[in-house]
Design brief:
Length: 159
């Protein structure tokens, strides 16, 4: 049985928390547990304080990964995407969508210094390790980040 976008949406919606990893300036991974919202197009929405390293990392390199899981059910979802800082009408839309997933956060989304991000997926892997075993991947090449030529050159030269 092939998993659908609707199946993945329901899984993410049922797990409002995820571990999100960003890339530090020195290339090291930095992870944090975050509460997230999700759209039917599998875009993740979350907020962070502007002073947090996550915000600084995403402003420099918008790639991130997220992991959702249910240890008791033996289910995991790995997610890689590109984050976009929200402003203007997009910010208001993202707040509305986030609150659909977490209506109890209505006071928190008004805190000063918050930055909202909306993440487009470029790769998702869903796995089940219970009685039945299943691993399925979805790719979204239209959302894949373009690696800047300079970064590629620096990697090849060991810098």
């Amino acid at each position: 049985m092939t998993i659908t976008k609707q199946d993945l949406f329901a899984f993410i919606r049922g797990h409002v928390g995820a571990v999100i990893a960003t890339v530090a300036a020195d290339g090291a991974p930095q992870s944090a547990f975050m509460f997230v919202g999700v759209t039917p197009d599998l875009e993740l929405i979350f907020y962070t304080l502007e002073s947090n390293r996550k915000c600084q990392n995403l402003r420099r390199d918008p790639r991130l990964s997220a992991t959702f899981g249910d240890a008791k059910a033996g289910q995991t979802l790995q997610y890689e995407g590109v984050a976009e800082e929200q402003s203007g009408l997009a910010l208001e839309d993202s707040k509305r969508l986030y609150l659909e997933s977490s209506p109890d956060a209505v006071d928190r989304v008004q805190w000063p210094g918050l930055v909202f991000y909306r993440v487009r997926p470029f790769w998702i892997r869903y796995s089940e390790y219970g009685r039945s075993w299943k691993v399925e991947e979805m790719r979204f090449p239209e959302n894949a980040p373009a690696l800047p030529v300079r970064s590629l050159w620096q990697r090849l030269r060991g810098r």
